[in-house]
Design brief:
alpha/beta; seven-stranded mixed beta sheet; 29 helices
Length: 841
């Protein structure tokens, strides 16, 4: 008897974590072909196996078992140059159920009896096997139909097909429940259908029809269905990860507050059932899982013991690039060990095993033991999208081989006809049934109407810009929830804090930071679905904005966050999609640069989902650039200008405590995403009174000083628009301007978007001249936008061009001697008014 070593040269994403040495099996008929082995392992062409430095040996063939042609075999005696193997870069892993079962025992703590139960629930149930098979056929049939319709021009834009990866929708259909929160990426058609979303509505969305899941506003990459809790369809790689964490946290908040969704998906004072086992599931490719958001997700999920499953679809390709070329660790299922999060690897070639192992992992999460990772090793039969040329090395060879050798549907059919569970005729009938549904879906989409043009503007904001937020009723259950979640001692403490702030407000001694803090406490008590996220939250952050929130409302509603704004803005987005009103406090608004993707998606959500999902998120923080603030370039960026181009976002500024208080209250009540900027150098120094218990409009500017009738009649009045620190700078020089014989209408642009053109026009009708003291850059700044609107809409009222007093395009220096050349201030405004009033500009 001679030893035979059977080796699979692994690649990133295809290794077992627990096999560190080759498994040696025995045969009496084969010899070791060392040259063939060496050639196969060392070849580096696009048609050979590539063995990365962290490859592990994976094999499960026993004595006397025939070795398939795709496995490299080697004998001990006779040298030969013949080595059979697939002409692909990435070999299969060829798991059998025992490989999955042993991981469940070792990593998830299941007993052998429990593992056998999961096995039996599939293998001994013809109904479950039928369910899985139909899901596989639906996924394949639907995607094939999409490809045909794309080629006919009925589906447009980008489209990404799922052929070859059908084991994943098979698992979803088998083990995921309607109430589970599902977050996918741009290759999500089959995930949506397997989650219970109507196939006709999905196809109609792809056809850009009004009957689509999102009324034609989303398209192929943005499938959403509120009734199925299918929450995307997100196009930016990995952006969905923190959203799913926020959704998972919403489940915990439902339980903690004793609330649940009614038939309109609004919170009501009904506790979730005692056996509530909902989870959040998020899909990501193994290429996308290399994104740093994965580490942040695992940290957050482990810290809060979130009911979350990270499902990694490991097809070995990051877009079309071989993942091993750009990543050294494809074993994403092993990455959770640093956080105490277990992971399971399964073989997507065997859909039944994926269903069995996947359900065991899902049940682990459902049981309250915490998050988990499931990595499905699979192959994608199509390119990244039909538009991609697929020039990446090895891709075309791999695709052809995988269609022949790694088809999960063919594997299923062969396995269960061979063992007598199904006849070929039975399977043909199931397939015929499914394809009839696909055909009906195409017909429905084809015959559906296009959405009206007017719908685009209707989907801009959930709440109209002129909404009176004072009229919005508080939830009827607020007092009941507060009583059972806030102790008498906590309530006494926070009420004393609130009373103290209100006394300051009456005395005219409250700061901007304290005014925002007061508004937040009042709104969190008024509506218990209001949450808050911030860095240094327990300590009150830099300006006391979140002060006493965690001490009052607990860690679930008031979360101290890691230092990554994108992560906790993303979690807030997930909460916002699930019935909560998250507040995000940015210690400095410039830190929001880390969250641009998430802020952008928050702005798009209401429209992209066809109006299904509100996004009641409020972002608030100190920012802007005061003259001589000596903070350097990174802390002096005009982030308020950066976000102006994000659709669906309401943006305000507040240079006084009263404005900050009223606007904050309105933003928290608004059903869309809002961003409040406060002046970083005035957060503690600016003091004033508050119009207590009143919400301010989100679409109005404020006239802070009106030019005298005499100056208007003499042509010596100028309209001045400004915001943030510009308000203080302008107010400081009003006397100087008047001493020169001129005057100004000083308008604070409290609403940057939407812009209050009515107030601007009304002032221009008096002065016919306008200057903008702008706290953003000359290129792409707030002033550029405002100036363009004035020139377009009020041109006939202008006696002179718009005078822009804006920051230079150069980065803001630290040294005051240089900074004065970049940042405009009151002295620049005096000169600007003089130039306009005297006709020199």
């Amino acid at each position: 008897e001679e030893d035979v070593i059977v080796v699979h040269a692994g690649c990133s994403g295809s290794q077992y974590p627990r096999h560190n040495i080759p498994h040696i099996h025995h045969t009496t008929t084969m010899n070791f072909a060392k040259y063939a082995l060496a050639a196969a392992l060392c070849a580096a062409s696009s048609t050979a196996f590539i063995t990365p430095k962290n490859a592990r040996v994976v094999s499960r063939y026993t004595a006397g078992e025939q070795v398939p042609s795709r496995v490299m075999a080697a004998t001990l005696d006779t040298p030969t140059t013949e080595a059979a193997g697939p002409s692909v870069m990435r070999p299969p892993i060829d798991f059998v159920w025992g490989d999955v079962a042993s991981q469940l025992v070792e990593k998830f703590g299941y007993s052998q009896a429990e593992v056998d139960m999961y096995d039996g629930e599939v293998e001994s149930s013809k109904d479950n096997l039928i369910k899985i098979y139909k899901a596989l056929q639906m996924a394949r049939g639907f995607e094939n139909a999409c490809n045909q319709q794309y080629m006919q021009g009925k589906i447009r834009g980008f489209m990404h097909l799922d052929n070859g990866q059908e084991a994943i929708p098979g698992l979803v259909d088998y083990a995921i429940k309607n109430g589970d929160k599902k977050y996918s990426y741009y290759r999500e058609h089959t995930h949506a259908i397997a989650s219970g979303v109507d196939a006709g509505a999905v196809m109609a969305e792809l056809f850009m029809k009004e009957t689509g899941t999102c009324k034609g506003a989303g398209g192929s990459m943005h499938i959403f269905d509120k009734s199925a809790y299918f929450q995307g369809g997100w196009a930016l790689v990995s952006e969905q990860l923190p959203y799913a964490a926020g959704a998972a946290k919403s489940i915990l908040m439902d339980r903690a507050l004793g609330v649940s969704d009614n038939e309109n998906f609004e919170k009501e004072d009904v506790a979730p059932p005692a056996d509530d086992d909902r989870i959040s599931i998020v899909f990501v490719g193994e290429g996308g899982a290399q994104n740093g958001r994965t580490a942040e997700l695992l940290n957050s999920a482990a810290k809060d013991n979130l009911p979350l499953l990270l499902l990694v679809i490991d097809n070995g390709r990051a877009i079309n690039t071989y993942t091993g070329d750009v990543a050294t660790n494809g074993s994403v299922f092993d990455q959770g060990k640093h956080y105490g999060v277990p992971g399971l690897q399964v073989d997507g070639y065997d859909a039944a095993d994926v269903a069995k192992g996947g359900k065991a992992v899902i049940d682990y999460v459902r049981s309250g033991k915490g998050p988990a990772i499931l990595q499905v090793h699979t192959y994608r039969f199509n390119g990244h999208s039909p538009a991609d040329p697929e020039h990446e090395r090895g891709r075309k060879d791999e695709k052809a081989w995988a269609r022949s050798e790694q088809d999960p549907i063919k594997k299923f059919e062969d396995k269960y006809t061979a063992n007598g569970v199904f006849t070929e005729d039975e399977l043909k009938e199931f397939k015929k049934e499914v394809l009839a549904d696909v055909k009906a879906a195409v017909k429905f989409a084809d015959e559906s109407p296009m959405p009206p043009m007017e719908l685009a503007k209707e989907l801009e904001y959930p709440d109209a810009p002129d909404t009176d937020y004072n009229l919005k009723p508080a939830p009827a259950y607020a007092d009941a929830v507060n009583a059972r979640t806030i102790s008498p001692e906590q309530m006494e403490t926070v009420q004393a804090h609130i009373d103290g702030l209100r006394e300051k407000a009456i005395a005219g001694d409250i700061s901007i930071g304290d005014a925002i803090n007061l508004a937040i406490h009042e709104e969190m008590l008024r509506d218990p679905t209001t949450t808050i996220h911030a860095e240094d939250l327990q300590a009150g952050s830099s300006y006391d904005i979140p002060k006493l929130t965690q001490q009052t409302y607990g860690k679930t509603r008031a979360a101290d966050e890691i230092i990554d704004e994108g992560h906790f803005i993303g979690k807030a987005l997930g909460e916002g999609m699930n019935g909560y009103r998250p507040i995000v406090e940015l210690m400095n608004t410039n830190f929001g640069i880390f969250g641009m993707a998430e802020i952008s998606s928050a702005g798009n959500t209401y429209a992209t989902t066809g109006g299904q999902f509100d996004m009641p998120m409020t972002i608030v923080g100190a920012g802007g650039t005061a003259p001589n603030q000596a903070l350097g370039a990174e802390h002096s960026q005009p982030f308020h200008a950066y976000v102006m181009g994000i659709p669906g976002l309401k943006i305000c500024s507040a240079a006084s405590p009263d404005a900050a208080y009223g606007i904050t209250k309105s933003m928290i009540r608004d059903n869309g995403p809002c961003f409040l900027f406060a002046p970083v150098k005035m957060m503690k120094e600016a003091k004033g009174t508050l119009d207590l218990d009143k919400c301010a409009p989100l679409n109005k500017s404020a006239l802070l000083h009106e030019a005298s009738a005499e100056s208007v009649a003499a042509g010596n009045a100028v309209t001045v628009l400004t915001y943030l620190h510009g308000v203080k700078e302008a107010q400081m020089v009003i006397d100087e301007i008047q001493e020169e014989g001129f005057d100004i209408d000083l308008i604070e642009l409290r609403s940057l978007k939407p812009l209050d053109m009515d107030s601007i026009r009304k002032s221009l009708e008096r002065t016919n001249k306008i200057a903008i003291l702008d706290e953003s850059t000359k290129s792409g700044g707030i002033g550029a936008t405002v100036s363009a609107r004035i020139s377009e809409e009020c041109f006939d009222l202008l006696d002179a061009p718009v005078r822009r007093l804006c920051m230079d395009d150069a980065p803001v220096p630290y040294a005051s001697t240089m900074e004065v050349a970049v940042v405009k201030r009151g002295s620049d405004l005096v000169q600007g008014v003089f130039d306009l009033a005297t006709g020199q500009y």
